[in-house]
Amino acid sequence: MWNTLKWTLSLLVVALIIATAGLVGFAIGDQAGGGDTVQAPPGDTISGDGSGYDILGEIQDILEEDFVVPEAVNGEALEQGAIGGQIDALGDPHTVYITPEDYQSGFDIISGSFEGIGANVDQDPTTGEITIVTPFRGSPAEKAGILPGDVILAVDGESTEGWSVQDAVEVIRGTEGTEVTLTVRHSNRESEDLTITRGTIVIPTVFAHDAQDASGKAVPGVAYIEIQQFTDQTVNDLRDELNRIGDEGYKGLVLDLRRNPGGGLDATVNVADMFLDGGTVLTQVDRNGSETVYEAESGGEAVDLPVVILVSGGSASGSEVLAGALRDNGRAKLVGTQTFGKGSVNHIRELSNGGALYVTIARWLTPNGTLIEGVGLGPDVPVELTPEALSDELQKGYGPQMSAAIDLLNQQLAASR
């Protein structure tokens, strides 16, 4: 149940449905990620009551009696402002209040689909800007021209300055067939208004085909798999593909995580299990410094298959866990650009008003002890691409980063002969 809820909530926020952190941020991520999450005690709730907050009631009483614009003194608005003020004071964009309406709507996508634009968003911890982590494959966002790394400057003409992720999600999400116009700033600093027709978004998982060289021709013996999210279904789909690759005699694999914003913790660890014959996947460190180590089991489906991983700024949370785990355990090299940098661990606490708090409770480290929060993972083989060029490569299935990954994989295969 927690995995389902975790994934749902990550999609909600990061997938522009509900304000949750969504990238295995553990996860917001998150969940939709991401982030992978830790389950709160069943039925656990938090009450807003407490003598330490009596001053808020005093202030509201004074405002109701004295404030010059009486109609502005709205109890619900003041409550939301107080909640937002507490969370903003933490300086953590991944801790998010979820309103009762949004929390309830999160259960609408357990079937694996939802209505919206189909893009993962997060907040830049340095600038505070609302940023596109990645659009989903074939989504309305991707079709309209949204690119990984785009900064959302305005929604339907309203500036996003000072907005939280939740603020953005509540405005951008909507029912199928309706339109929303995003003013975005691309990485080349050019701004553009993009009108998107919302649709029903089916959450993608695993996509596989032969790797392609610079001319688009299949490379014999080299498989290609893209993982776009980490869910229970992802684990099943990937296991099937890895078994097929083994049965058909493929010699190596290019694993593409360039537009993977994360997902469920259990799913991420299970995926790592398929490539690791034992060893650490990640270490979680809580507020007291206590460590929880997640270990891979022996005997996975692809423990002997040479692997090269493609990464980008759209690789976040769970995809960073997987990339870090395989690299630190000597199972893979990374090709591409710096990853997003989502190293937080979050869980859901239900509130007495029917809402919830998605709260950061820990950080996670790669097997070598690296904290990637706000930093990300650097590639072993850097291949810089503009977001436009990367989008083109992802659409076609081949390009400079893919070619570099194939070259590196061929070198590994030659050395092992």
Task: Give a verbal description of the structure.
The chain starts with a helix and ends with a helix. It contains eleven helices and 20 strands. Strand 8 and strand 9 form a beta hairpin. Helices cover 30% and strands 26% of the residues. The N terminus is likely disordered. With 417 residues, the chain is of the alpha/beta class. Strands 1, 2, 14, 15, 18 and 19 form a six-stranded mixed beta sheet that branches. The chain has a six-stranded mixed beta sheet with strand order 11-12-13-16-17-20, sandwiched between helices. The longest helix is centred in the C-terminal third of the chain and has 17 residues. Helix 7 runs parallel beside helix 8 and helix 8 packs parallel to helix 9.
Brief digest:
By secondary structure, the chain is of the alpha/beta class. 30% of the residues lie in helices and 26% in strands. Strands 1, 2, 14, 15, 18 and 19 form a 6-stranded mixed sheet that branches.
Q: What average pLDDT do the residues reach?
A: 83
SSE-based structural type: alpha/beta
Characterize the largest beta sheet: strand count, sense, and whether it forms a barrel: 6 strands, mixed
Radius of gyration from CA coordinates: 22 Å
N- and C-termini, Cα separation: 46 Å
Contiguous runs where pLDDT drops below 50 for at least 5 residues: 1-50, 107-113
Q: What share of residues are in beta strands?
A: 25-35%
Q: What fraction, in percent, of the residue positions are helical? A: 25-40%
For the secondary structure, the number of strands is 20
Bulk shape: globular
Number of helices: 11
